[in-house]
Q: What sequence folds into this?
């Protein structure tokens, strides 16, 4: 790194710099304040190697919580060979620095993760973009489509049913039955800004059937609006009849 007075950053950093310049355009900045600390391209390249194993997380809750408790819990749950480096990054946001590919893949691709029952979104992060503006793609969950008629329990039919729920990652036509019932098991990405579906509809020549969806490792979500992050007693005024849930 080097000091360089009067330099003009480019790219994303330049855009942010311009924004700051606009905000403080009415101020008279002195030379010391304009004396940039410059990160040379070779140094930035080395920093980016470390950022390969960086992730950003968001706790889906309207409640306050202890960031220290979150970090301690996830270190225990993930149980990586080396402890995470965890930092708060904004409202309900944090970053997790892993140290190698195996740990990063576990954190990013397994789950769903919860704390303590709220959904925890985790995705890869470049370490440069504004955490508050980061757009999460969703949460990966395991779900069961139950009671598909045996005649129509075919891969292509299940694929179409699964797409009605979310972005499909994996389909298990003959899963090991850890839970009671007759079901196929699907892993998919769900949009946490939309209500979680309770059924998928299957129409066939003999009729139509509403197939229940059951989510494994159930997240803390509202029975009324079906959004993640609060329960029905925190939705609206919290007073609902059983038939409304």
A:
């Amino acid at each position: 790194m080097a000091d360089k007075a009067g330099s003009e950053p480019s790219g994303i950093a330049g855009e942010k710099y311009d924004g700051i310049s606009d905000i403080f355009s009415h101020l008279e900045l002195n030379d010391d304040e304009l004396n940039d600390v410059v990160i040379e391209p070779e140094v930035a390249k080395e920093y980016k190697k470390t950022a390969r194993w960086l992730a950003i997380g968001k706790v889906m809750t309207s409640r306050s919580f202890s960031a220290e408790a979150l970090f301690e819990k996830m270190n225990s749950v993930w149980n990586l060979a080396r402890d995470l480096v965890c930092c708060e990054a904004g409202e309900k946001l944090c970053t997790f620095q892993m140290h190698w590919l195996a740990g990063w893949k576990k954190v990013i691709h397994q789950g769903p993760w919860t704390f303590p029952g709220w959904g925890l979104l985790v995705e890869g992060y470049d370490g440069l973009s504004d955490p508050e503006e980061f757009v999460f793609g969703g949460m990966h969950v395991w779900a069961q489509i139950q009671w598909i008629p045996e005649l129509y329990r075919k891969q292509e039919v299940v694929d179409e049913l699964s797409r009605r729920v979310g972005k499909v990652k994996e389909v298990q036509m003959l899963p090991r039955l850890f839970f009671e019932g007759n079901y196929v098991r699907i892993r998919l990405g769900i949009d946490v800004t939309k209500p979680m579906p309770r059924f998928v509809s299957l129409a066939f020549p003999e009729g139509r059937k509403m197939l229940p969806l059951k989510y494994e490792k159930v997240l803390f979500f509202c029975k009324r609006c079906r959004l993640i992050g609060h329960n029905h007693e925190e939705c609206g005024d919290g007073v609902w009849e059983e038939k409304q849930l």
